Inverse folding.
Protein backbone atom coordinates (compact mmCIF):
# COMPACT_ATOMS: atom_id res chain seq x y z
CA UNK A 1 0.00 0.00 0.00
CA UNK A 2 2.26 2.70 -1.31
CA UNK A 3 -0.16 5.45 -0.28
CA UNK A 4 0.89 4.74 3.33
CA UNK A 5 4.59 5.28 2.64
CA UNK A 6 4.86 8.13 5.15
CA UNK A 7 3.53 5.98 7.98
CA UNK A 8 5.09 3.24 10.07
CA UNK A 9 2.60 0.48 9.33
CA UNK A 10 3.23 -3.19 9.91
CA UNK A 11 1.14 -5.23 7.46
CA UNK A 12 0.66 -8.80 8.61
CA UNK A 13 -1.21 -11.16 6.30
CA UNK A 14 -3.08 -13.76 8.30
CA UNK A 15 -4.07 -15.98 5.40
CA UNK A 16 -7.33 -17.01 7.02
CA UNK A 17 -7.59 -18.41 10.50
CA UNK A 18 -4.21 -17.88 12.05
CA UNK A 19 -2.62 -20.69 14.00
CA UNK A 20 -1.90 -20.27 17.69
CA UNK A 21 1.81 -20.47 16.83
CA UNK A 22 1.49 -17.45 14.55
CA UNK A 23 -0.64 -15.71 17.15
CA UNK A 24 2.17 -16.28 19.65
CA UNK A 25 4.66 -14.68 17.23
CA UNK A 26 2.30 -11.69 16.88
CA UNK A 27 2.11 -11.48 20.68
CA UNK A 28 5.90 -11.41 20.88
CA UNK A 29 5.92 -8.45 18.49
CA UNK A 30 3.28 -6.77 20.66
CA UNK A 31 5.44 -7.40 23.74
CA UNK A 32 8.34 -5.62 22.03
CA UNK A 33 6.08 -2.63 21.35
CA UNK A 34 4.89 -2.57 24.96
CA UNK A 35 8.47 -2.86 26.25
CA UNK A 36 9.28 0.29 24.25
CA UNK A 37 6.80 2.19 26.42
CA UNK A 38 3.57 1.98 24.45
CA UNK A 39 0.42 1.29 26.44
CA UNK A 40 -1.74 -1.60 25.28
CA UNK A 41 -4.68 0.73 24.64
CA UNK A 42 -2.52 2.70 22.17
CA UNK A 43 -1.98 -0.34 19.97
CA UNK A 44 -4.36 -0.50 17.02
CA UNK A 45 -4.92 -3.42 14.69
CA UNK A 46 -6.88 -2.60 11.56
CA UNK A 47 -8.32 -5.71 9.93
CA UNK A 48 -9.22 -6.06 6.26
CA UNK A 49 -10.65 -9.39 5.20
CA UNK A 50 -13.13 -11.35 3.15
CA UNK A 51 -16.84 -11.32 3.95
CA UNK A 52 -17.60 -15.02 4.29
CA UNK A 53 -18.15 -17.48 7.15
CA UNK A 54 -14.47 -17.65 8.09
CA UNK A 55 -13.55 -14.03 7.38
CA UNK A 56 -16.51 -12.77 9.38
CA UNK A 57 -15.43 -14.80 12.38
CA UNK A 58 -11.76 -13.78 12.47
CA UNK A 59 -12.44 -10.83 14.77
CA UNK A 60 -13.79 -13.25 17.37
CA UNK A 61 -10.78 -15.56 17.09
CA UNK A 62 -8.28 -12.69 17.05
CA UNK A 63 -9.90 -11.25 20.17
CA UNK A 64 -9.63 -14.62 21.93
CA UNK A 65 -6.00 -14.96 20.91
CA UNK A 66 -5.11 -11.42 21.99
CA UNK A 67 -6.79 -11.92 25.38
CA UNK A 68 -5.13 -15.29 25.91
CA UNK A 69 -1.72 -13.66 25.48
CA UNK A 70 -2.62 -10.78 27.81
CA UNK A 71 -3.50 -8.11 25.23
CA UNK A 72 -7.17 -7.57 26.01
CA UNK A 73 -6.81 -3.79 25.73
CA UNK A 74 -5.56 -3.79 22.13
CA UNK A 75 -7.91 -2.02 19.74
CA UNK A 76 -8.97 -4.40 16.96
CA UNK A 77 -11.18 -2.99 14.23
CA UNK A 78 -12.47 -4.50 11.00
CA UNK A 79 -12.73 -1.89 8.27
CA UNK A 80 -13.30 -4.09 5.21
CA UNK A 81 -15.16 -5.95 3.76
CA UNK A 82 -18.41 -5.10 5.53
CA UNK A 83 -22.01 -5.79 4.61
CA UNK A 84 -22.52 -2.04 4.18
CA UNK A 85 -19.63 -1.86 1.68
CA UNK A 86 -21.06 -4.78 -0.28
CA UNK A 87 -24.35 -2.90 -0.69
CA UNK A 88 -22.81 0.56 -1.17
CA UNK A 89 -20.38 -0.51 -3.90
CA UNK A 90 -22.48 -3.35 -5.35
CA UNK A 91 -19.64 -5.81 -4.78
CA UNK A 92 -20.22 -9.17 -6.43
CA UNK A 93 -20.61 -12.27 -4.32
CA UNK A 94 -17.87 -14.60 -5.34
CA UNK A 95 -17.24 -17.22 -6.22
CA UNK A 96 -20.34 -18.81 -7.59
CA UNK A 97 -18.73 -22.01 -8.81
CA UNK A 98 -19.99 -25.30 -7.41
CA UNK A 99 -16.71 -26.42 -5.77
CA UNK A 100 -16.22 -23.20 -3.83
CA UNK A 101 -19.85 -23.15 -2.76
CA UNK A 102 -19.42 -26.72 -1.48
CA UNK A 103 -16.34 -25.62 0.47
CA UNK A 104 -18.28 -22.72 2.02
CA UNK A 105 -21.11 -25.08 2.96
CA UNK A 106 -18.64 -27.36 4.78
CA UNK A 107 -17.25 -24.46 6.82
CA UNK A 108 -18.27 -25.03 10.46
CA UNK A 109 -19.09 -21.31 10.78
CA UNK A 110 -21.59 -21.34 7.89
CA UNK A 111 -24.74 -21.86 10.01
CA UNK A 112 -23.89 -18.86 12.21
CA UNK A 113 -23.11 -16.77 9.10
CA UNK A 114 -26.47 -17.64 7.50
CA UNK A 115 -28.29 -16.87 10.75
CA UNK A 116 -26.65 -13.42 10.87
CA UNK A 117 -26.79 -12.54 7.16
CA UNK A 118 -29.76 -14.49 5.82
CA UNK A 119 -27.85 -16.42 3.17
CA UNK A 120 -24.52 -17.97 2.30
CA UNK A 121 -22.26 -15.89 0.09
CA UNK A 122 -18.72 -14.63 -0.02
CA UNK A 123 -17.22 -11.32 -1.09
CA UNK A 124 -13.47 -11.23 -1.32
CA UNK A 125 -11.39 -8.26 -0.16
CA UNK A 126 -10.00 -8.12 -3.70
CA UNK A 127 -13.48 -7.15 -4.96
CA UNK A 128 -13.27 -3.92 -2.97
CA UNK A 129 -9.78 -3.14 -4.26
CA UNK A 130 -10.75 -4.01 -7.86
CA UNK A 131 -14.17 -2.34 -8.08
CA UNK A 132 -13.48 0.82 -6.07
CA UNK A 133 -9.72 1.18 -5.62
CA UNK A 134 -9.90 4.90 -4.82
CA UNK A 135 -12.52 4.31 -2.13
CA UNK A 136 -10.43 1.46 -0.70
CA UNK A 137 -7.37 3.72 -0.52
CA UNK A 138 -9.42 6.51 1.08
CA UNK A 139 -10.89 4.09 3.63
CA UNK A 140 -7.50 2.80 4.74
CA UNK A 141 -5.84 6.23 4.67
CA UNK A 142 -8.63 7.75 6.76
CA UNK A 143 -8.39 5.01 9.39
CA UNK A 144 -4.62 5.41 9.61
CA UNK A 145 -4.78 9.21 9.67
CA UNK A 146 -7.31 9.10 12.52
CA UNK A 147 -4.69 7.28 14.60
CA UNK A 148 -1.47 8.87 13.34
CA UNK A 149 0.06 11.80 15.25
CA UNK A 150 1.49 14.13 12.60
CA UNK A 151 2.91 16.55 15.20
CA UNK A 152 5.25 13.86 16.52
CA UNK A 153 6.05 12.80 12.97
CA UNK A 154 7.11 16.32 11.95
CA UNK A 155 9.00 16.87 15.21
CA UNK A 156 11.25 13.92 14.42
CA UNK A 157 11.61 14.82 10.73
CA UNK A 158 12.84 18.31 11.65
CA UNK A 159 15.66 17.05 13.87
CA UNK A 160 19.20 17.15 12.49
CA UNK A 161 20.13 13.95 10.68
CA UNK A 162 22.61 12.78 13.36
CA UNK A 163 19.95 13.16 16.10
CA UNK A 164 17.00 11.85 14.09
CA UNK A 165 15.55 8.59 15.36
CA UNK A 166 13.83 6.03 13.21
CA UNK A 167 10.24 6.54 12.18
CA UNK A 168 9.33 3.54 14.32
CA UNK A 169 10.73 5.40 17.34
CA UNK A 170 8.54 8.33 16.39
CA UNK A 171 5.41 6.27 16.09
CA UNK A 172 6.21 4.35 19.26
CA UNK A 173 5.78 7.60 21.19
CA UNK A 174 2.11 7.67 20.27
CA UNK A 175 0.67 4.65 18.41
CA UNK A 176 1.92 1.40 16.93
CA UNK A 177 0.07 -0.31 14.09
CA UNK A 178 0.30 -4.04 13.55
Amino acid sequence: MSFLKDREIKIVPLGGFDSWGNAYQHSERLNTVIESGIKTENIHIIYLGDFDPSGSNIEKLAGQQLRSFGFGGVNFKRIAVTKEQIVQYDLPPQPEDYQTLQKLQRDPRTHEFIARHGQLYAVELEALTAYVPDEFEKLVQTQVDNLFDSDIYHEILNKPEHVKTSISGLVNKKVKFL
